[in-house]
Fold this sequence. Notes:
This protein is an alpha+beta fold.
Amino acid sequence: MNLLVNIRALRVVAVVTVLATCLGGGSLLAQNPLHTASKAELDVVKVLLAQEAAWNRGDIDSFAQGYKNSPDTLFITRQISRGWAGMVQEYKLEYPTKASLGTLGFSELEVHPLDESVAVCIGKYHLDRTKKDGGNAEGLFSLVFEKTDKGWKIVLDHTT
């Protein structure tokens, strides 16, 4: 288990290094804004489109299917949280009604495959809600995806 944790830690360090390069102006898309998307890039975007649709239907359980169901899945917002089950519970507590979920939109998506089984996606989100239901929200996110036997899944979510 410790070897597995160390390998994952090294992988996360590598991803953070690549992500820092991408966000620091070395973006692959900025260098070549018109390129043919790879299958991996398209598959990652499909996960996000499915999450967006699930969220907008008020279906947190389907939204959560975009994440790897693992106790090692990481969520970084105002704090660091670990584990898929806890994430689902937090979403359900924070967004108890369809109105509190509002309407979610993703934009400016960039997918950067690192190898056959790992990709980084950065982008923006916007949440439209009435003031009574929490008001609008928007920010940036960076996601690390892992290709699993169940398709591409988010293993690290850093949302501001």
